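Lecture notes, unit on protein representations.

Consider one protein chain, 482 amino acids long.
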Amino acid sequence: MKTSILKSELAGSWYVDDPVRLSNELRAYIDIEKTPPVKNLLGLLLPHAGYRYSGMVAASGVQLLEGRTYDRVIVIGPSHQVALPDCVSIPDVSHIETPLGRIELDREAISNLWKNETFVAHPYAHQSEHSVQIELPFLQEVLSDFKLIPIVCGQLNEASAALVGNRLLPLLNEQTLLVVSSDFTHYGRAFDYVPFEDDIPSNLKSLDMGAFRLIEQNDCAGFLQYVENTGATICGRSPIAVLLSMLGEDARVKLLKYDSSGHLSGDWTHCVSYLSAAVTGRWKSADTLASADSNRSEVVAPKPLSGTDKLELLALARHRIAEKLKTDEPELNLKISPAMRETMGAFVTLHKQGILRGCIGEIFPRRPLFEAVSEHAVNAAFHDPRFPEVREDELEEIDVEISALTSPKTVSSCDEIEIGKHGIVLTRSMYSAVFLPQVAPEQGWDLETTLSHLAMKAGLGSNDWKNDCEFQVFEAVVFGEL
């Protein structure tokens, strides 16, 4: 197999770039912390800030690995820079390099994970993402040879976290360690999170321990709801949800150490919380996994959208755009029907005098349709990098179109794709692109022309769709303003 290396960009900023100094620093953290040993260690929950801030907290967990050996380590951390809705990414490389050396990836296991649509190889998700890479020198310091599965986790809900967890469970055994990477509350105006201004240290700890109590109880739904209700800026909430989805009934997550950058810097107006925890007990059984997969295979068709539903969704999309442009926009009296609450993917497309003016959405269903429409109306108007932001003086000239999507399904051959009926997701290694069902008919393209343009959109050659590409198809209910 050809050697391809992802060189970590953290050296020299997140930690020192000299291997001897780095090893000495890590060893100092580890030797200071004396964490009591634990039995049946399954994994660790560790912070991922620069070592000068979170090194002591991380070391209290890493110290438990002294004298242990593992064939494989899975590290899963959140994506801070790249949107990965309802999926996770593993880099398409053979090794990751830090100042302490190269770590070989478990390519055989990774190749099997990539066969599932939830696992991708996003070309930009790993280049400067610190959440996974910050853990690697610590692991190199205390463990001998091991193969690595580095996972950058996208934005998951309870269902998609369970999908990821169920794909990882078969890999988890006595010779595999799981490391979940997450910082806890990011407090301050720079993080747009100031829920209180008095007695910040104790209020922060209370907020973080409220979240951790639900982690201790293996309550994935409760943890995610707590984060939603409090707005707690826990960046690794999705990786934590994946962890909780895999824990057996007797598994425990035990707090080892908690601290904040405020204690080091003295600045409580801008600080981040850190904790480390040990995961012990047993993972879910294979029987539980098979049952979960069986239950998910019984797909219930979403409720059809009525004419009134479509009008309500279009009004919602236009209102959200206008709301961003005008400070005095009147409140929308939205009537949310059961069909609008169905979990579906959605795209919002804007046209100005018949010409595309913005289009953004999500393919994989992860939340109620009306919530997806609400967010992507704003994204299409103000965050499509191909276009300038929509201005107030052109709003009346813009038409809104919504595509409500079925879940993508893998097809064995591109010959199964029906132009005009199917939207298409093309994937080849780290390259991926999507066309909505209406794209090809609007352009007058046949199947071959469509796939050529889709391949080029993904960054491939026009004929590369003919070799080593995977295809998924989905259908869409498309409706727009008259």
